[in-house]
Amino acid sequence: MNASPVAVNAGLSNMIDKGRRDRPTLASDPIAGTNDLNGTPMSQMQNVEKQLREMILGLEIGPGERLTERWVESRFGASRTPVRAALLRLETEGLICRDSRSWTVSPINLAELEQIAVYREAVEVAALRLTCALQDRSAVEIIEAMLDSCDDKTPREEWHRVGMDFHIELARLSGNEFLFRAVRDAMTRLSRARWLEVRDEAALDRAWAQHHAILSAVRVGDANSAARLLSAHIIGSRDRLVTSLRNDRRGLRARGFAVVA
Amino acid sequence: MNASPVAVNAGLSNMIDKGRRDRPTLASDPIAGTNDLNGTPMSQMQNVEKQLREMILGLEIGPGERLTERWVESRFGASRTPVRAALLRLETEGLICRDSRSWTVSPINLAELEQIAVYREAVEVAALRLTCALQDRSAVEIIEAMLDSCDDKTPREEWHRVGMDFHIELARLSGNEFLFRAVRDAMTRLSRARWLEVRDEAALDRAWAQHHAILSAVRVGDANSAARLLSAHIIGSRDRLVTSLRNDRRGLRARGFAVVA
DNA sequence: GATACCGATTTGGGATACCAAGCTGGTATC
DNA sequence: GATACCAGCTTGGTATCCCAAATCGGTATC
After folding, report:
1. Model pTM?
2. Cβ of A102 < 7 Å from strand D?
3. Angle at the Cα of A79 (from A83 to A76), degrees rounded to 5?
4. 3-state per-residue secondary structure call for chain B
5. Chain A interface, best mutation among B129, B178, B234, by max A CB count within 10 A
6. Is the pLDDT of residue B90 over 90?
7. Is there a contact between B81 and A85 if contact means CB atoms under 8 Å apart?
8. Are A197 and A113 in contact (CB under 8 A)?
């Protein structure tokens, strides 16, 4: 919206202050990565939110761990105001939750995972049907290319990301902002659990084949087939995911990850 | 959740205003109306969020109006910290949005309303099918009773609320928390527009008849019929709503309500 | 009269001080 | 040795204060 410029940000000015003397002022030492893709300076809140989200999704902070505002504050060099704003946002995403008075990284909740899959199925299938009804479905080729960009040498992180983006981008094609956001948010909530799932090569190949099959059906506008394939894919993924986590529950707990239900 | 509503809001108490150093601490003087249904004292953030939401949904603050943190602060007698927290939450609900630097009550967006209806259809139908598959569907009687509680003497506010709660409570029966929240949030976003819709008696009766028909199908477990009826109801409501607002756009603007797209 | 410029005011972003509730560890009592 | 109790620390909630950017008026210039 704003072409809003420049503005090297704000010179804080608390070089005195005993509390966080180790934190340099922003002006003199912009933290790496504090500008967004457009070069627009990101607010502290956005910084904290983004980095904390990445830490949580990347399991650098384990499910069930307690978070204190003061820890986040010192970890990211921001004051409590932006920290609190970021925590509030992450709470609405379901990544953290309040445990009476304190903040906790949301545990992996098996019952929740099952419910999310049902929710995903509803919104993804709806989005898919909209997409199939479009005149111009050429954008599926972009998604196909995205899938094909993964090969043996692709790091696991990339496979993980592309596997989620497949569903998110497919939903985006529908043009319905709400269906798109629903899918994106659901995938975000599933992300950590998918990292913890034990998946063999064969399962990955099967998932990729299913992705391709779905795209093929969309390409020719066969909404019913596409919907059937997508439903089966989502429910199958859910069952494998939940089974894997349930079987590995002890191991996960041993690694310090809270897994409930 | 709550049988909610009501709660005409809270007796503010900011006759003093400018400095609030004369305001005693929360603990020693809980503000009237600041306790939730359980008697648990509500935080200032929750107070501000709840009351501001009611003002926005009740059109006491019109779509498109600008909000300043200072205004909210003085209006509710809270300081900026809880005010900002409340604004952040309302932003994620879509009730307010940022306009570059300042806050704006979200305008009525016709394109958005159409998209929400599609989203609603997806999630409500999915929830309905889950409910139809339940062994015990006796809870539909409670919803039926809720519908029947409205008669000629019922104030319009109550009709409005029950009309929304029908869909929300129906979704709750599915037992899927995500479908439920999706429906609740979608209805919240639609709420203001529904207030502005010009509806005659006949349209209301028709909607009520459709509600009853849907419940009847659910009662006997006829998922396909129920789904068909619900879809038709939602899409029909959407068309009437959007048509009404489009026709009345000038009138709405004259009343100071921003209506876009 | 239109416009460009400049300063005062407003506004959101951030930092920090203070408070009350709750938790913790240690101590005293039985 | 177990338990009740209390002081001190931790933590989230809140109130303020400061800052820079944006906005708004008014004025001077053409």
Report:
1. 0.87
2. yes
3. 70
4. CCCCCCCCCCCCCCCCCCCCCCCCCCCCCCCCCCECCCCCECCHHHHHHHHHHHHHHCCCCCCCCEECHHHHHHHHCCCHHHHHHHHHHHHHHCCEEEECCEEEECCEEHHHHHHHHHHHHHHHHHHHHHHHCCCCCCCHHHHHHHHHCCCCCCCHHHHHHHHHHHHHHHHHHCCCHHHHHHHHHHHHHHHHHHHHCCCCHHHHHHHHHHHHHHHHHHHCCCHHHHHHHHHHHHHHHHHHHHHHHHHCHHHHHHCCCCEEC
5. B178
6. yes
7. no
8. no
Q: Tokens representing B131? A: 């409910």
- Substitution target from B69, B80, B119 for chain A, most A beta carbons within 10 A: B119
Is A35 in a helix, a strand, or coil? strand
User: A38-69: b or e for each residue (b if 16 or more CB lie within 10 Å)?
Assistant: eeebbbbbbbbbbbbbebbeebebbbbbebee
A148-191 per-position pLDDT tens digit: 999 888 898 999 999 999 999 999 999 999 999 999 999 999 99
CA distance A25 to B11: 43
Assigned token pair, B246: 């489009």
Residue B70, number of CB atoms within 10 A of its CB = 10
Residue A49's closest CA among A77, A81, A87, A78?
A: A87
Instruction: Supply φ then ψ for residue B67, to 5 degrees.
Output: -120, 135
Among left, alpha and beta (phi > 0; psi -120 to 50; other), residue B16 is alpha
Measured between CA atoms, how close is A115 to chain B, in angstroms? Answer: 6
B177 vs A4, A115, A125: nearest CB: A115
Q: What's the angle, vertex CA B167, arms to CA B164 and CA B169, rounded to 5?
A: 100
Instruction: Using the structure, give the distance in angstroms from the CA atom of A1 to the C1' atom of D13, rounded to a whole number.
Output: 33
Q: In what order do the strands lie in the sheet with B66-67?
A: B66-67, B102-105, B96-99
**pLDDT tier at B25, thresholds 50, 70, 90:** very low
List, for residues A65-112, the tens digit of each pLDDT value: 999 999 999 999 999 999 999 999 999 999 999 988 899 999 999 999
Q: Distance (Å, rounded) from C-alpha B205 to C-alpha B217?
A: 19
Interface contact A122-B123, CB threshold 8 A: yes
CA A119 to chain centre: 16
Beta bridge partners of B102: B99
Q: What is the DSSP letter of A234?
A: H
